[in-house]
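hiii, so i know i said id send this last week but things got crazy w the move. better late than never?? heres the sequnce for the chain we talked about at the cafe, plus the structure i predicted for it. fair warning i was half asleep when i ran it
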Amino acid sequence: MKRPYKVLSIVGARPQFIKMALVSEALKSERPILREVSIHTGQHYDYRMSGLFFKELRLSSPDYCLGIGSGPHGAQTGKMLAGIEKILLKECPELVLVYGDTNTTLAGALAAAKLSIPIAHVEAGLRSYNWNMPEEVNRVITDRISTLFFCPTRHAVQSLAKEGIQRNVYQVGDVMIDMIRRFESVAERRSSILKRLGLSPRSYYLATLHRPINVDEAVTLKPLLSLFKKLDYPVIFPVHPRTRKQISRMQIAPSPSLKLMEPLGYHDMILLEKYARAILTDSGGVQKEAYYFQVPCLTFRKETEWIETVRSGWNRLVGSDLRRVPRFLQALPRGTTLNHLFGNGNASQKIARRIRIFLEKGAVKKWKE
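okay and structure toks below
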């Protein structure tokens, strides 16, 4: 019997574990034609940012763990590139699958491109057009060297077309929204987060901050946290490890109106999102999840790659003008939620099917020969 086509999936950060969960399940359904091998670079290495997610999302343990950890962008990406290359040479996959826009994404794509291995990019075509964001650099370069492009929205397809990328481009929907659809009822049964925190629906704001522009300097982080303390409802703030280091270094004290917490598991987090009065964030994924739950969202950025959430009316870009925040929260954004905007819940199946068709057509024979 002919050996299966080997797909090597590369992840390393919390959002990528979420995206990978259903795609891996879909790849398994394509057995014996496809076989998945996985690498965890260790970009997120804290248990609450990594191990807990593998457990809650029922992900199989990765085949390879590089344990890279944190560090400057160049050093971190370089270590990943070297480690991934060794595994690619050992495994000789027919295709490399990368997710999103992290340093793990870029390192995986570069390692594959150097070895002439086709690359499939999940979340292709997203653009913020802000080149000061490392994520923008990562996603644009990854798209330049990819072979298959799995776009979550029509806007992402159009963005690729503007750059001359139109071959092997597929609008499949968003795998993170598919995950919420799958796990929302599970979270309702398993999570007691509201009870543990003594919260009732719509009686709190939920905050997440992790981008360097907001958390790396006291001149930006301190005003944000001071604002949170003064809002009309308490703010629940699960703190990213990067942000936690800065809060500790700056000696910023919590208050009764600002509850600082360790990062939460997937079930707890989506339940807090679902029942929040509003969400205050700089995260791309959280913007989409707020949209899904029809929870007003204020995004502490000047731009977003998820422009659909703004156009719908559910999301407002605050930028650096914090004076607008209380006024926005007095008249919370309300909008229209289109159930099909991020797909119909079957993005992962579409991705796995397109990968199978691509490989069965013999598109990788040249480099293998």
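btw Residues 242 and 248 are 10 Å apart (CA to CA). thought thatd interest u
miss u guys!!
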